Fold each of these.
Amino acid sequence: MQHMTKLEHLEAQSIYILREAYREFKSLVMLWSIGKDSTVLAWLARKAFFGHLPIPFVHIDTNFKIPEMIEYRDRLALEWKVNMIVGQNTDALKLKNTFPDGKVDRIACCKALKTEALKHTLAGDWPRKRLNLEKGEYEIDKNTEPYTGVIVGVRADEEGSRSKERYFSPRDLNNDWDIGDQPPELWNQFKTDFAPGTHLRIHPLLDWTELNIWEYIEKENIPITSLYFDKGEGKRYRSLGCYPCTTPVESTAKNVAEIVEELRTGKFTNIAERSGRAQDKEDGGGLETLRADGYM
Amino acid sequence: MNQETREQMNVVIVGHVDHGKSTLIGRLLADTGSLPDGKLEAVKENCRKTSKPFEYAFLLDALKDEQSQGITIDTARCFFKSETRDYIIIDAPGHIEFLKNMITGAARAEAAMLVIDAHEGIKENSKRHGYMMSFLGIKNITVCVNKMDMVDYDEKIFEDIKKEYSEFLDEINLIPLHFIPISARDGENMTETSSMMPWYKGVNVLDALDYFKKALPNYAKDLRFPIQDIYKFTSQGDDRRIFAGRVESGSIRKGDDVVFLPSGKKSKVTSVEGFNISETNEAFAGQSSGVCLDTQIYLRPGEIMCRADQRLAHVSRKIKVNIFWMGKQPFVKNKNYKLKIATTQVPVVLSEIISVLDASELSSIANKSQIDRHDVAECVLETLKPITFDDVNHIAETGRFVVVDNYEIAGGGIIIAPVFEGASQLTEHIKKREFSWERSDITPEKRGFKYQHKSALIVITGETNVGKIDIAKALEEELFKLGKFTYFLGISNEFLTRGANANDKTINKLQHLQQLGELAHVMTDSGLILITSVSDVDVYEIEMLKSLNRPNKTFVVNVGDNQLAGEGVDLQLGEKEKSDVGVRKIVDLLLKSILVDPDYSI
């Protein structure tokens, strides 16, 4: 009998959290950004539920995502039979109140296209599109019930404020996060009792590092978008987002194994993973400001 | 070393406020080159701009509030590698105000470094945190005596603290692996041996981390597999009925005979399930898994699966525990709380306080009638239904619990032993009720003579949608036609417990049954034959309902196959049985017991 490996421990804990969430909360969704972390999360959900995905996935389409991401999303959604829901801030896009259109700064753009779109998609007061798995097309979803529990693939090693998260983290009606007064979590007992109106974030990947994520993708052979790989130009994306605000890093890693090797040898040890994400750099505490306001 | 099989360890840094926990971590990260490029420079630059002296702690205190107040508010995790291991270093706040954050951090840890300020000496939270480590079951401890630079690297000061603190740890059965004199700020004895303290011959902080030992996994112990949920994804063409959960200790394999507690139901494992795994015949401690069984047994999440050939877990309604309280409101008697242990949730009351301890002094506080915030107490708790558990020293995973007060986790505790003596809360309640009940002059005999029958509660049980309500209504009509004094109470669980937390099925059910029991007692006391139906109840719940309805008679009529499995059932009906046949059988049963000639004597 051998010891469980680090990855097996991480996997077992994430599955445990997913199952707790599914048992305790009915109006639950999982946020799928198409990136490596939330795709690993989706894979872990298939593990937790023995090949099934009983929790709907929500994707917020900013309309500025790198096109391959959307193509990859729909291909995988059909293959894995994902109950796929897509939301968008169509008003802001129509009025061109975006950073790429030059009307607002990056932070305001993130707030409108991601935070606002997410809030209203979850609340159900903006139209949601749902993927019809038989036709392979998106249709307006008739269900407008609010989703009050959101499973998110954030990791503690990404950034300071994320290092202080709980596995089960309550937010109030405005999605505000009271960082100073978070509930205790002891011995796998999480806060699962809530006053009506509480919104909840669930973070099954909190203890994973960027390297763990790639090691796991390699171990489990999880399909991942090719944007993470160098296609001969000596560049690849390390963190995915909207194309106007995301820059690739210099790297010649062409596949998962090479990325794992690259991270292990410490090429990026001293460079923040989200360094290619421009919005973090605004205002000193960019991501904390965004997150306290409902950004994931 | 193979990267994937490298060990990972969670280490928490604890100690009194301002004794330098964040500084220790910041310095460790900086000296081992674990910080992102430019992070150190950026923090230094920020300090220059705001005219604050630079501190290594600023590297950790990521929140704006923490930086401006200069204290750690919440636990942070940082990732760091030594030659041999990957570490998650958990920075816990030292301020008493944030004790629950510290506990959250420490409960995730396998080892602890306790920091004491050489200049200030041992403070209340140095002791309280030490005590909490012992409470949380963390045996791997190293003590760092920090700020040695402020006491001129004086060996005597270090030795005095070491002596005093060792004595304290000894009282709570903790033996630290090392005592290290350090100056985190100046990097003395952090990653290299300090030249400032030639009198110290021991290890430095970095080495001390690697000396912590991983606990052995629970493979060899008795199986404890708390049922987290039961899945059947029939709509997706999957007929497996999977009992999902994490193996908390021991191992389970195909063919094992198993016992579920507290219900005592037995079955055999036909398969161990998983997705994208190669080995599907067994699962070990630590793995999140699932099993299929060879019999169709009905269970709710929360039961613990044990192996029939091993020592079973305890089942009891009373437990002797050690608890620490974090709630804003004190923990008091005569109030309903919720207890969560493994995957079970159950109403609980504080039934006896044995002693309350001041954890910063290890002194008992005499005659307390409540347990206040930050108190540690030995007490007896009583749950409304039996729970399954272990002595924490036997299997920690099933020997720890939390208490929820008004949506918040307000206490955490460890179970010392089951308590078997003494009356239960329910019998006490019924005794009190009988005492304060002013009985009518019309005796049950007089009523029986008048109505030509004794009173009774008839509970129709079974899974949802097996026709319970149809039978109940048809029975009411039949008895009514026969001239009996009868009433069908068609009230749903949802209605009686409206306002309660909708997520909480088990607790809702118990509250519903309690209210139903009280209501039934009043109505049957009036001489009525009361008919009602409840879905998905277990033996304990039926027993509770019967107790509450006493001294009046309760009949349980069960429809179809379910978790009662015949226990406590007076009449069993088939699921396909027509309601008129069912009604006939019930009336026959009643004829034998309550619809007798009025000349009966009692």
Amino acid sequence: MIRKTLLSLILILTLFAPTAQAQEKFIIVQSTTSTQNSGLFDYILPKFTAKTGIEVRVVAVGTGQAIKNAKNGDGDVLLVHAKPAEEKFVAAGWGLKRYDVMYNDFIIVGPPNDPAGISGLKDVVAALKKIASSKSFFASRGDDSGTNKKENRLWKSANINAEKDSGKWYRELGSGMGATLNTGVGMRAYVMSDRATWAKFANKGDYKIMVEGDARLFNQYGVILVSNKKHPRVKSQLGQRFINWLIGSEGQSAIGDYKLKGKQLFTPNAK
Amino acid sequence: MQEFNTSFAIAADLIFSAKPELLEIVMLSLRVTLSAVAIACAIGFPLGGMLAVARFPGRGALILLFNTLMGLPPVVVGLLVYMMLSNAGPLGFLQLLYTPAAMIIAQAVLITPLIIALTCQVIGSLFLEYEEQFKALVVPPKTAAAALLWDARYGLMTTALAGFGRAVAEVGAVIIVGGNIAHVTRVMTTAIALETSKGELALALALGFVLLCLAMGVNACVLAVRAIGEKRAYV
């Protein structure tokens, strides 16, 4: 009985295995939700596939998880937005070289009644101080994503230990950007978001951008080829071709061409 | 909440326009979950039957174990399967991560305990009726289990449906091992999660209605088979 069961299991699995290997030319890119949710990938990836015949399969998770997955060898290319963590990834030998790809910026959104009175502030650190001192709700990603890492650094610059008040005015949601925005709007909390996700987000309610334009809200995206020294199965050649395209003139202009309601969401800046 | 009305309209539109993109997602959902149910039943029916009929030390503990595993959180199953199939894991060489096969494995792991526990329950109560006869005729447990499984085949369809329901509705496991890759591993539940995260609540809810219709279709098919079969068996 056991042998029969095992046989049927293998049979069922093999039925599906070939479909997985059928398109042999594909790479897996570990990336962030912001690049996927903003619609950028849907716009630029078909151009790359049309030119090279290489299919790009995107796994969109938070930057922290993307880096972890890449360390496990479960991706050929890493495209995320947390420069210090990316440099650590390369220095430890998990990735080959880090290239700048594009940037946009973070913003803080909030309800129009603006309980902390931060609307229009150019200084993001001052805004965070006001949120903390007025104990206004602030919804944090709390998921070790690129946005979350940035937010933590900003709290540090403001000399505020927000985590101490976690569960009071400071709410760590442990969710992706979209889920955090959904919840944040629901609980009338301030939320720090990347501009691309916010632009595409459809459940804004009456929320408005409160703080933008501070140089410290700069949001740089980088791309790294996962090293095949630790994981020999990484598709280095195909992955490098994707990176070359992305930081080359074609990829860069494709990124610059992507617009939502007439607005450019990412600015290419590969060197 | 005008989202509800919009959702119904979008759902109706989605179903009747039968967009190829949606069809692809629906078909993958069906393919993955039906395969997982087939695997889980192939393991769960015989195991559950034996567990109901055979008497051995540790049987009670085993039943308790499978009953407990019915409450396995999908995310935990997803993590376990991810760790096995990851390139850093013991089964990485199979290259199954981020493929439909990985999603099938995860869902099968998720619902096999449920199938075992429910089968054990169904066969167990049937066994009480026949225990004397089996004893008198000295029927070995294996044969008894097989006979009872056949006898209870229509009841066991409901067991399979319970497994189908749990598998088709879960998102935690398939999003980890499948990666929600467009055109490759995107199923109904991960598409719903994605649209929710984009704030497209009406569309997400509409996809939920579509998923419900899908489940209804599968349930209707099984119930029809059951009704026809029972009529043939008892008339």
